[in-house]
Amino acid sequence: MKDLKQTVVEAVSPGMCTGCSACVNSCPRKALSFKRDRFGYFVPDIDIEKCNQCGLCVNLCPAVKLPARLNSDNPALYAFIARDESLLRKSSSGAAFGVLARHMLSQGGAVSGCAWNEDWNKAVSNSDNDSTQNDASISSAGAPPSSKILPVAEHIVVDNEADLERLHKSKYFQSYMGSVFSEIAELLKLGRRVLFCGCPCQVAGLRSYLRKDYDGLICVDLLCGNAPSQAFFAKYLKDSFRETPASYEFRNKTSGSWATHTVKVGFKNDNYAVIEKNADLFQKAYHKHIMTPPHCECCKYQSLPRYGDITIGDFWGISKHDPHFNTQKGVSLVLVNNTKGKSFFETIPENLIDYLEKKPLAWLGKNGCALKGCHNWSYPGRNRFYLSYSSGKSFEKSLEEALKLPNDEDILRLVSGSVFYFDSIKGSNFRFSPDDWEEHHIYKDVYLFAKRKESPIRRYAWLSFGSKLTKDTKYRIFIKFKVSTLSNTVNFYLMNGITKNNQLIYSYHVEDFSAEKYVIKEFVCEANSDYDSFMIAASQIKGHDPWIAFSKVLIIKDEVIY
Q1: Most buried one in 307, 442, 499, 552, CB count within 10 A?
Q2: Could you tell me which of 206, 235, 236 has the C-alpha nearest to residue 221?
Q3: How many C-beta atoms lie closer than 10 Å to residue 108's C-beta?
Q4: What is the 3-state secondary structure (H, E, C) of 376-392?
Q5: Of 205, 257, 194, which is closest to residue 227 (Cα–Cα)?
Q6: How far apart are CA 113 and CA 106, in angstroms?
Q7: Which region holds residue 242: left if phi is over 0, alpha if psi is between -120 and 50, else beta?
Q8: ω before 305 within 30° of 0 (cis)?
Q9: Of 99, 63, 61, nearest to 349 (Cα)?
Q10: pLDDT one digit per residue (tens) for the chain, 562 residues
Q11: Calpha distance 46→66 (Å, rounded)
């Protein structure tokens, strides 16, 4: 009997496959194909009768082994705005992609990027049938069979400006990669130049698949936030509109501004609706990271050094550094990551550029989670959204499940399976120095009063678990508390009682009502070491008679959705 552990189907941990397609395109026996998993993500499937267990798919999988990071960890950062007004209007921000792509076409090259499927209605109808579509696939290293997956959007290769129009604008979900890596490889072997634009995981996948660098290949990776399933998007469309839209445009600039996140939904007879970000359910779910897949939450491709020769994205936050900067039409952020990217970028004709200026790398901020110390994340209710979706509930209902605030009953239902549970009714286990804290029991709750108006750092109170939270394990934590402090932020930590090492797990932004009523905060964290205590610092409980009151603290292992 063949051992699937020698194949990528078993070698990659559940939820960690990005669907980059390096394995599907590389299999010499065409034993691999794409299927949709239970949440609609594109993942490899295997015909075990064709597989000879050569191990190539595992060796080339970036989720198993990252390609070498050869680019600079201190790239040059630029603010970029294209000169062409029409190009700016049909671009999400400053039209960096449009200019880079046209520059490649002018050199006789080809461009690969994500395009909406031309058979839109049929694609939307089929895209949220999750497990029922598992037999619809595209064969590896060859033309797709007649039963191919019909995605809402997919990566294609174009070599003219008319077709390039399809690649413009953001698509806030996972792109179907199909056989595009094979197409790019064939062009490169023929001596053609190619610009490939995709998420960092897709660029890493292409580099792994090719197994060598080509002088004619320019890889452009995106400062992405997350890429949820196309099935979620299709479900949203079906549940939100009486008729299937004829078109959909993220980041529409009808309002005249690039930062509004409005969407334009087209219908038959040239009717359309423009929906603001806060009124659009998909935008709400996306920007709150409610749909973030596990492989995006744990992304290992975003950080510097990047995998792209050039990185592009929105230059969010530039106006904070330069209040007079006019961002009305959109401004792109460009990272030039190596000498090949620099050579290509510097040869863009000046008449295509309206604004180009180098900026400090620190201005990158949290964009794309590229800088050290920044990492991607998911909303605490993400798992509830996924499980609600997979049970057949509507998109709106699944979103409501995710956004639902926990209450005492929710906490009590989880106590039996908890790693640690503190309930003030049962008394206090807080430990602290009497020079820094004073404890009182008021209405069955535990109040900790900070005894100094400006307490020095490393003066804390802590709860011992009686057991350990283990490194690299994810935990879901609930804290019911209220606080009276002049500090704008109150931080909660995990601590090792022996070494005193600690990890910040949640920052609460103090609100006007914080001293008047209890709040329950739910969040997920991954322990970066072994810890045995929950900690609060006295330095952030300050002012006149400052205090923090705890009612409940619950810690459970986070449930795995795969």
Answers
A1: 307
A2: 206
A3: 9
A4: CCCCCCHHHHHHHHHCC
A5: 205
A6: 17
A7: alpha
A8: yes
A9: 99
A10: 566 778 999 999 989 999 999 999 999 999 999 999 999 999 999 999 999 999 999 999 999 999 999 999 999 999 999 999 999 988 999 999 999 999 999 999 999 999 999 888 888 877 765 433 443 443 444 333 334 688 999 999 999 999 999 999 999 999 999 999 999 999 999 999 999 999 999 999 999 999 999 999 999 999 999 999 999 999 999 999 988 899 999 988 877 677 677 899 999 888 999 998 889 999 999 999 999 999 999 999 999 999 999 999 999 999 999 998 888 889 999 999 999 999 999 999 999 999 999 999 999 999 999 999 888 999 999 999 999 999 999 999 999 999 999 999 999 999 998 999 999 988 778 999 998 899 999 888 899 999 865 555 568 999 999 889 999 999 999 999 999 999 999 999 999 999 999 999 999 999 888 888 899 999 999 999 999 999 998 888 988 889 999 999 999 999 888 8
A11: 22
Tokens of 556: 């459970």
At 342, list the tokens.
């620099």
Alpha carbons 192 and 188: distance in angstroms, whole number? 5
- Give the span between the Cα atoms of 154 and 330, in whole angstroms: 25
Greatest Cα-to-Cα distance within the chain, rounded to the nearest angstrom: 78
Tell me 404's DSSP state.
P
Two structure tokens written together for 52? 């000879």
Cα–Cα distance between 240 and 357 in angstroms, integer? 42
> How far apart are alpha carbons 488 and 64 in whole angstroms?
42
Q: Going by C-beta distance under 8 Å and a sequence separation of 6 or more, which residues neighbour residue 512?
A: none
Q: Which two tokens stand for residue 555?
A: 């810690």
Contacts of 293 (CB under 8 A, 6+ apart): 15, 39, 41, 174, 226, 227, 228, 229
Residues 6 or more apart whose Cβ sits within 8 Å of residue 82:
88, 91, 94, 95, 96, 98, 99, 352, 353, 354
pTM: 0.90
Among 292, 300, 160, 305, residue whose Cα is nearest residue 219: 305
- Alpha-carbon distance 512 to 164, whole Å? 51
Query: Scanning the structure block, which residue is given the tokens 């952030």?
Result: 540
Q: What's the number of CA atoms in the CB half-sphere (13 Å) around residue 472?
A: 0
Burial of 397 (0-12, 13-18, 19+ CB in 10 A): middle
CA–CA gap between residue 382 and residue 403 (Å, rounded): 9
| DSSP 8-state code for residue 204 | H
Instruction: Assign 363 to helix, strand or coil.
Output: helix
Write down the residue that tokens 């705005």 correspond to.
Answer: 81
